[in-house]
């Protein structure tokens, strides 16, 4: 579980430091202040050794097509990762985790011949390799990810050249699972069904049933039904037949995806952009209570963003009524040219809500 996290020269952040992180962390702040960028930085850090994850960030923002233009240095797919588009500086992500210690990721675009020399053996210059040719950014685009942890260092490269995009050398798996749930990208029904199947294998399927009963008390059981070759979660709500979960409403499908992501990330991290989407404000306290219980059960950590004061108040209420207040609110504020984080613990958040102070 992350205890602290620092960002340097990534996206909109010149420098940002988050401390006093908890099991469940809610990120608030105005538009264009970096809430989604913070989740993206955490996602890359969870991946530890895999620079290919940088390409996925575009998909989270709705940019699905990666167009590669070699032959002239115009722009790489990674330019927007660096603060102010300043490619002369590296981006740094530093996280302190209570199980894996401190890990530092450094991202840098290699474009000078001298910088590209160390990866020259991986670069393809066309159908036949040009012996002795000078390496340049006209032949390849390369992003280097350097990971330092526990006194060790490793370098991994995302390479775009005449061959297909790839990572060299092949990175090892990350130390713990991490899931990113984008704001307006629905989790495929088959993926939720697969995650539910994994819960059934370990006998924990009731964790989802109990959470969904917050919205639909009539729900008796859940099952995966394959129709037309497509697996989908169905529920028994007393109609004499099973009903597809999406038919029960967007809130049911949304909460199911949230719980399944958390329960499939044991000792890992789940990142949720605009967590209140699809959930009515009246059930938010119970939703937070259900998510907290699942996160504790599977020892997962949650980072979520919100624009909603009702969502913040609901989370505070749910954790106040819980036996453990393992929740923090972090608000991002733009001050001059920098973005700073203000963290609210139980007492300060209670006082702010009581006095009507703006915490969004």
Q: What does it look like?
A:
The protein is an alpha+beta fold and 360 residues long. The protein has 9 helices and 16 strands. A 7-stranded antiparallel beta sheet has the order 2-1-4-5-6-7-8. A 6-stranded mixed beta sheet has the order 9-13-14-3-15-16, with helices on both faces. Strands 10-11-12 form a 3-stranded antiparallel beta sheet, with helices on one face. A hairpin with a 5-residue loop joins strand 7 and strand 8. Helix 5 packs antiparallel against helix 6 and helix 7 crosses helix 8. The two termini are 25 Å apart. 40% of the residues are buried.
Q: What are the key terms here?
A:
360 residues; alpha+beta; Rossmann fold; 2 domains; six-stranded mixed beta sheet; 9 helices
Topology record:
Elements: E1 2-10, E2 13-18, E3 24-29, H1 35-47, H2 53-60, E4 91-97, E5 101-110, H3 113-116, E6 141-149, E7 152-160, E8 166-168, E9 178-181, H4 189-201, H5 206-212, E10 221-227, E11 230-236, E12 243-244, H6 250-263, E13 269-272, H7 284-298, E14 301-305, H8 309-320, E15 327-335, E16 338-344, H9 346-355
Q: Could you state the CATH homologous superfamily of the largest domain?
A: P-loop containing nucleotide triphosphate hydrolases
Radius of gyration, taken over Cα atoms and rounded to an integer in Å: 22 Å
Please tally the β strands and state the result: 16
Low-confidence stretches: 127-134
**Roughly how much helix do the residues carry, as a percent range?**
25-40%
Q: Strand order of the main beta sheet, please? A: 2-1-4-5-6-7-8
**Overall pLDDT level:** 90
- Reported by name, the CATH topology of the largest domain is Rossmann fold
Helix tally?
9
Structural class category: alpha+beta
How would you describe the oligomerization state of the chains in this entry? single chain
**What would CATH call the class of the largest domain?**
Alpha Beta
First and last CA, distance: 25 Å
**What is the CATH architecture term of the largest domain?**
3-Layer(aba) Sandwich
């Amino acid at each position: 579980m992350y205890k602290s996290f620092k960002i340097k020269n990534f996206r909109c952040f010149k420098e940002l430091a988050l401390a006093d992180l908890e099991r469940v962390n809610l990120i608030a702040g105005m538009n264009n202040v970096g809430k989604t960028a913070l989740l993206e930085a955490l996602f890359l850090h969870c991946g530890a050794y895999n620079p290919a994850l940088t390409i996925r960030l575009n998909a989270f923002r709705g940019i699905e097509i990666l167009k590669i233009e070699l032959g002239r240095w115009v722009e790489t797919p990674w330019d927007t990762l660096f603060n102010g588009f300043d490619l002369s500086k590296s981006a740094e992500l530093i996280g302190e985790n209570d199980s894996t210690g401190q890990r530092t990721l450094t991202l840098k675009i290699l474009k000078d011949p001298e910088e590209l020399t160390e990866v020259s053996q991986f670069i393809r210059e066309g159908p036949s390799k040009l012996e002795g040719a000078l390496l340049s950014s006209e032949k390849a685009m390369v992003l280097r990810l350097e990971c330092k942890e526990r006194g060790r260092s490793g370098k991994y490269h995302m390479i775009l050249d005449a061959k297909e995009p790839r990572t060299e050398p092949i990175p090892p798996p990350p130390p713990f699972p991490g899931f990113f749930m984008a704001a307006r990208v629905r989790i495929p029904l088959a993926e939720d069904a697969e995650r539910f199947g994994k819960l059934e294998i370990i006998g924990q399927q009731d964790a989802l049933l109990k959470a969904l009963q917050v919205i639909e008390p009539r729900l008796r059981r859940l099952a995966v039904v394959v129709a037309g070759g497509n697996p989908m979660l169905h529920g028994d709500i007393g109609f004499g037949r099973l009903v597809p979960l999406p038919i029960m409403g967007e809130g049911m499908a949304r909460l199911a995806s949230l719980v399944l992501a958390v329960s499939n990330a044991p000792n890992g991290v789940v990142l949720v952009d605009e967590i209140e989407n699809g959930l009515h404000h009246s059930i938010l306290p119970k939703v937070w209570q259900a998510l907290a219980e699942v996160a504790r059960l599977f020892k997962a950590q949650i980072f979520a963003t919100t624009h909603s004061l009702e969502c913040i108040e609901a989370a505070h209420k749910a954790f106040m009524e819980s036996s453990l207040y393992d929740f923090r609110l972090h608000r991002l504020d733009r001050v001059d040219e920098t973005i700073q984080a203000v963290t609210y613990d139980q007492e300060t958040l209670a006082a702010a809500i009581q006095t009507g102070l703006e915490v969004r």
